[in-house]
Design a protein that fits this description.
The protein has 1111 residues and is mainly beta. The protein is 7% helix and 39% strand. It has 8 helices and 65 strands.
Length: 1111
């Protein structure tokens, strides 16, 4: 299908820009003999005469010896043509034969270095372990490892006898380790960029201090002098100084004009062991045939091998040559750095002010062991840099581009040895020369696995394009499609290209794709348009085709049309049209990468085949896509056609009482809602959104229609979304709010209106489930974000917060048995009390803790605390504790602390605990009622008593726990302190506390108080005696008062009677009745009581006798 075909093509176009123009799909590989270190050194070379040819020069320092060399391994130089054949490299015929009386070529490492002057120039290759022998097979035989080099003509032969052939600078000089006996000339070699000089490094001279030789490469050059760096005992002019012994000066060499002075040639040499950190010397020639150090750059880390490799190039094209120094052993363990390359941008020759940029490699990669000036790979006017990291995986080469600011620190391209099947890839580099004839420099990469890889640079083209849309604004009420009803938009795109050089002008075919509503589809929304005339395999929102550009600057245009879908929702955001394009066939070569890596043998049969030209690549400086927008004509947005809404959000947490009844949660002192978690299953969040003008006096400023107004709520995992409810559930709603939640309920989007009109407001409830709230939940945070495609700056998300408290459903109740007590008896000292019955009245407190929720053991350590008023402020006993016991089913009975009965009194048997010893008679004076106080309250909370806190552990109980506490009133204290009180109220308090790591526990109804009323025993007033003299005085006072009263009454004549004639006094005679005849006697004898049978009749005429009469 073409639809899937275009999307991968777009990805390939982007990858092509990222990988840029060194073609990793059409590489050229060459193999050497196994174990020969073929690829230890490499050089690109182009021969101009006698016939043009391009060569890949490869050093193999462990190649087998020629038969005439009388050795096993001597090394050699190989030349490889630009053909697809893997094994068509041939050995350059140099260093044939041997004079065993003067030399030894065994393990001389010919090919340890190889350099080319470029197109039509000379070649140099060296054998730094070549031995000069003297007095062979004699007692004083010597072998000096002086090294030697060969200079070849451009056709790889020794044609000029004066300039070509063998170069041995250390031969004939004083031998020995402290002089030139271990010279190792040619470990590094280079040509100067002006083609006049050749440089040789000799790091073994002067006890490994090292030396740099510079001399002319052409016998016709007027300067025939040989320049060398100073001897150890030679005074060096200038302030730069020199390097000490064991510095390995000459390990790497290079040169350039404009390092210290414009247009003046300077020489550079690395000394990777100088002062154990490494150093790089910049030297100039003087009149005494010396190379004098002008600047010394020193390494920053011990054993980092700073100066192992060098590259001189102009990265920013300012005319001053810049310097790159490799330090492959640099490392930082914490940052996983292995190897570094220091980039010095030339500060106009003032190297003491240079501050390098350090490019870092991965751990163990040996990044910076090889550096190469790659030339201007992309023809942007700035030289580029290649850095090898042979142990970064299979090996990598990093390509860095130059710029007017210096170097671009991000690699423009990374070449990977794994992609071509080569290991230890990137050990040697050579670039800056075009060998395939497309005027772009190529790059040759060596390895330690006997393989080299040529990467050719693809030409870079710059495509100009222009996209226009007609009409520029969409009117949804006007149909403008030509052959059908609907709203259409026409697209016109025009292309042209330029390239460097101007002579490069091939025919290009561009593949392009129009894509509409890309951003909306990326967000998962359906596209709003469909292209007309698209291919059957193209999706409706895309149109793909090709356009041909015949040459540079030629202009070609294409057209396309899309139609808007019916009933689109988003009428405010513009429709974006993206044009993406690429060069047709640019990615085809990439499919051959697998054949290069896995089917090397297949290319062996194509010897003599020419390399196909590479297709160009788009410049990464220009994006390969262009985005254009077409806008809607906006309605409801004021005269300026700019919708400026003013959405405002108000919210509050509510408790849900029913399906449609909600009550706001209480708030703390800081205004945060407090959610008490007990047994409710959900909580509501009231949302109120308005779209009103911010200033009623200037309504045109804002408050326009809010298109696609959406509220996005993000919930914590403890409070997922459950449902949505209207603000007034009893009244029907015309446009109910629709909320769509994600799968786990962590986010919900509520559509408020499209548009939410000016002056409108929306109010509803979000129902949130509380099933995820745990004991560790302390607060809840819901992020609320309003969004609209209308303009409203500063529309930031807000957070609705609620503090969670865990409310424990505990209740504490208590009762005293009996609720009223009496005191009396006699005062006894504490030492006189032996039994509990001697203390006073008994009382029993029963405290019940009820639990309606889960077991307390999941919360922490719970305790029941009983505040026992044991004494008054003067220290006298008040309520004596006898026994405390806690029963909490289903667990065992628990004891409280501290222990009760501190005086160790004898406790009564279980059935006699209510008995109290009868009080002995006392002599207490009971105050009159008028003298007594009404009542007194003894409460530890008020400070009128002192309490002893008994803590009883509540380990675990299902429903209830009962604490039983027995005690007795201390009679003596009450007789001494509270005799003049009508009643005493004694308060005992009980409370539950929980010690837990949970900080938001709240105990509700977790305390109680138990009152006991105490009265004076009435028996104390009767049994209590009054002193006798008080009674005597009271009696005498009473008699005296009575006599005084009688005297007064007598004086007043109260006892005086009136005088009158005495009446006749009746008289009678008494008759004695015998006892036996008396009525009382008869009743006592008979056992019955009868009515009296006698009466006395008084009569004035009586003679005084009494006549008995029957009843």
């Amino acid at each position: 299908m073409a639809g899937p075909r275009w999307l991968p093509w777009l990805c390939l176009a982007l990858l092509g820009s990222a990988a840029f123009n060194l073609d990793a799909g059409s590489t050229l590989l060459k193999d050497g003999a196994k174990g020969s270190l073929f690829g230890f050194s490499v050089a690109l070379h182009r021969q101009l005469s006698p016939e043009p040819a391009s060569w890949l020069l490869v050093g193999a320092p462990l190649a087998p010896a020629l038969p005439s060399q009388a050795a096993n391994r001597t090394g050699g130089l190989f030349a490889c043509p630009l053909t697809p054949e893997l094994s068509d490299c041939w050995r350059v015929p140099i260093d044939e034969g041997v004079d065993l009386q003067r030399e030894s070529k065994e393990n001389q490492w010919l090919g340890v270095s190889v350099k080319s002057q470029g197109a039509g120039g000379k070649i140099v290759t060296c054998a730094h372990l070549y031995e000069a022998r003297n007095r062979v097979r004699q007692p004083l035989e010597t072998r000096d490892v002086i090294g030697r080099c060969f200079v070849l003509s451009q056709d790889l032969r020794v044609r000029d006898e004066l300039d070509g052939g063998e170069w041995k600078f250390c031969e004939g000089r004083p031998q020995g380790h402290d002089r030139f006996g271990f010279c190792q000339q040619g470990l590094a070699a280079a040509f100067s960029p002006d083609q006049h000089y050749i440089l040789f490094g000799a790091p073994g001279t002067y006890n490994w201090k090292g030396l740099l030789f510079v001399t002319n490469v052409d016998s016709s050059d007027p300067d025939q002098l040989v320049y060398k760096s100073p001897d150890p005992n030679e005074k060096v002019p200038g302030a730069a100084g020199d390097v000490p012994q064991n510095s390995y000066l000459g390990f790497s060499v290079d040169s350039g004009a404009g390092l210290t002075r414009r247009q003046e040639l300077s020489f550079v040499s690395g000394a990777p062991r100088a002062n154990h950190t490494g150093a790089v010397l910049i030297l100039r020639r003087d009149s005494a045939q010396r190379l004098v150090p002008e600047a010394v750059l020193r390494g920053e880390q011990l054993t980092s091998a700073f100066g192992y490799a060098l590259a001189v190039l102009d990265l920013n094209s300012d005319g001053w040559m810049d310097l790159v120094v490799g330090a492959p052993h640099f490392f930082e363990r914490k940052e996983e750095i292995g190897g570094a390359a220091y980039v010095y941008i030339n500060p106009a020759g003032h190297w003491d002010a240079a501050a390098p940029l350090r490019l870092n490699g991965t751990r163990g990669s040996m990044f910076g062991i090889a550096l190469g000036a790659a030339g201007d790979l992309n023809q942007d006017g700035f030289e580029d840099l290649a850095v090898g990291a042979p142990f970064d995986g299979a090996g990598k080469v990093y390509i860095y581009h130059g710029s007017n600011l210096g170097i671009v620190a991000k690699p423009a391209q990374v070449l990977d040895g794994e992609g071509v099947g080569v290991t230890a890839f990137g050990y040697a580099l050579s670039g800056g020369l075009d060998v395939d004839g497309n005027l772009y420099p190529d790059l040759l990469v060596g390895s330690l696995s006997d393989t080299v890889v040529l990467y050719r640079a693809r030409p870079v083209v710059h495509v100009s394009r222009n996209v226009s849309l007609v009409p520029p604004n969409i009117d949804l009420e006007q149909s403008n499609c030509q052959h059908q009803e609907g709203v259409c938009v026409d697209i016109r795109a025009c292309f042209s290209y330029t390239a460097s050089p101007a002579s490069y002008s091939p025919r290009l075919v561009l593949e392009y794709v129009f894509d509409a509503d890309t951003e909306r589809r990326r967000l998962g929304h359906a596209p709003r348009v469909a292209f007309l005339g698209r291919r059957p395999s193209d999706p409706e929102h895309q149109l793909s085709d090709t356009v041909e550009l015949p040459r540079q600057h030629a202009r070609a245009c294409v057209k396309a049309t899309f139609q808007l879908q019916d009933s689109i929702r988003d009428k405010l955001r513009p429709i974006a049209v993206t044009l993406a394009y690429g060069i047709q066939g640019a990615g085809a070569a990439r499919h051959s990468r697998g054949a290069t890596r896995h089917n090397r043998g297949a290319t062996r049969h194509s010897r003599g085949a020419t390399l196909p030209p590479l297709s160009p690549v788009l410049s990464p400086q220009q994006p390969s896509s262009q985005r254009t927008e077409v806008h809607f004509l906006k309605q409801g947005c004021g005269d300026d056609k700019i919708c400026q809404s003013n959405l405002q959000l108000h919210f509050q947490f509510c408790a849900r009482l029913g399906d449609a009844d909600f009550v706001p949660l209480p708030r703390g002192e800081d205004g945060t809602a407090i959610f008490a978690m007990s047994d409710q299953k959900d909580v509501a969040l009231e949302i109120h959104v308005t779209n009103l003008p911010s200033d009623p006096a200037e309504p045109q400023r804002d408050g326009d229609d809010a298109h696609e107004a959406v509220l996005t709520a993000t919930f914590p995992e403890e409070l997922p979304y459950s449902a949505v409810r209207p603000y007034d559930g009893r009244a029907p709603s015309d446009k109910p709010v629709v909320c769509l939640a994600n799968q786990n309920g962590s986010q919900v989007e509520c559509e408020l209106g499209n548009p939410l009109k000016r002056g409108a407001q929306v109010r509803f409830y979000l129902i949130l489930s509380t099933l995820g709230i745990t004991l560790q939940t302390t607060d809840l945070a819901v992020e609320l974000a309003l969004s609209t495609i209308s303009e409203q700056p500063g529309l930031e998300p807000v957070v609705a917060r609620a503090r969670v408290v865990i409310e424990l459903p505990l209740s504490v109740t208590g009762v005293a048995v009996p609720p009223r007590l009496f005191f009396g008896g006699v005062v006894r000292g504490e030492s006189a009390v032996r039994r509990e019955s001697q203390v006073g009245s008994a009382v029993r407190f029963e405290v019940t803790v009820s639990n309606r929720g889960q077991s307390l053991k999941t919360l922490g350590s719970a305790f029941l605390t009983l505040q026992w008023p044991h004494e008054i402020s003067n220290g006298k006993w008040l309520l004596y504790p006898l026994q405390l016991e806690l029963a909490a089913a289903p667990g065992p009975r628990a004891s409280c602390s501290p222990a009760a009965n501190p005086l160790l009194l004898a406790l009564e048997p279980p059935g006699d605990t209510e008995l109290t010893e009868a009080p002995a008679a006392g002599s207490w004076r009971v105050p009159a009622p008028a003298e007594r106080k009404k009542n007194v309250t003894l409460d530890c909370a008020q400070g009128t008593a002192r309490c002893l806190a008994f803590r009883c552990p509540l380990h675990s109980f299902e429903r209830a726990a009962v604490l039983t506490a027995r005690g007795r009133l201390w009679n003596s204290t009450f007789l001494e302190e509270f005799l003049a009180v009508t009643s005493v109220e004694l308060i005992v308090r009980a409370s539950v506390s929980v010690t837990s790591s949970i900080k938001n526990l709240v105990l509700k109804d977790a305390s109680t108080q138990i009152p006991v009323t105490i009265y004076l025993d009435p028996g104390v007033a009767v049994a209590g005696g009054v002193p006798w003299w008080v009674i005597l005085l009271a009696v005498l006072a009473g008699i005296l008062v009575l006599a005084l009263l009688v005297f007064i009454l007598w004086k007043l004549g109260f006892f005086r009677r009136a005088r009158y004639a005495p009446p006749a006094v009746p008289q009678y005679h008494a008759v004695k009745i015998p006892r036996e005849e008396r009525q009382q006697y008869r009743e006592e004898k008979m056992g019955t009581i009868q009515r009296k049978e006698w009466a006395v009749n008084w009569s004035e005429a009586s003679d005084g006798h009494v006549t008995p009469s029957s009843a």
